[in-house]
Amino acid sequence: MFDRPFNSLIFCHPLRVVYSPIPKAACSSLKAYLRQQMGLPEAPNVESLHNRRINGFGYPQTMDPEELCRALYGRSGRYFKFTVCRNPYARLVSAYNDLVASRSPGRLRGDAAVEALRLQYCKAYDKRPSEAPELTFEMFVRAIEASNPVELDRHWQMQFMVTCAHLVTYDMTIKLEELPGKQAQLISAMNLTEPISFRLNRTGAADADLRPYFPEDIAAIVRRIYRRDFHHFGYDPADIPRGVA
């Protein structure tokens, strides 16, 4: 949730690095890499990487205001700040396939967020909950459109909001699609030398033809919802990924 400014920023104090993770944009791989570079042991599972109580990262809530401002804005004591973004179409399909379409009974990850969307869809389209037992991709997109952006789960919340892009100027913003070729540049900018050996998030929607997901009416909704993402991160709203030829 976008419940307070900077809430999700990660502070790697030993490295003097701030990373703004965007879900479904290689954030697990980058968190694993940064932990390694901080000298922390390998995380036992993906869930522990995202658990801020045990993952070993610093967060704004643990910093006093002066320290936080110095790290983000100070001329001295300032940290290197970066984020990795993703094509809004591909990120949306990835989030749907991972957290909505693949749900099974008893699965906890994303259940509350998905249920909130399902109920929002029913409210917006005058349906009883029993009439929408599962969200299709079209229903998923329409439910996001009908929701308050501030209350959206971070996996499909606007990347502009997740990164607080209106408040933070990043030293480097890299598109996920270009990250393999820009790893060396990123590593050098962090004053590190070890390559990123963890698998980047290049599954599912990464190499698929996504046009079947987006008939014109649904594509138009996505362009409206994520218009600031398309503009700020430099993606063409007309460019729905067509996969690898």
Secondary structure: helix percent: 25-40%
Shape: globular
Average of per-residue pLDDT values? 89
- Counting DSSP H or I runs of 4 or more residues, the number of helices is 10
Number of strands: 4
Distance between the termini: 37 Å
Q: Give the tally of structural domains.
A: 2
**Poorly predicted runs of 5 or more residues:** 200-204
Strand content: 5-15%
- Adjacency order of strands in the biggest sheet: 1-2-3-4
Classification by helices and strands: alpha/beta
The helix/strand order is EEHHHEHHHHEHHH
The major sheet is characterized as: 4 strands, mixed
What's the Cα radius of gyration?
18 Å
Quick summary:
The chain contains ten helices and four strands, in the order ββαααβααααβααα.
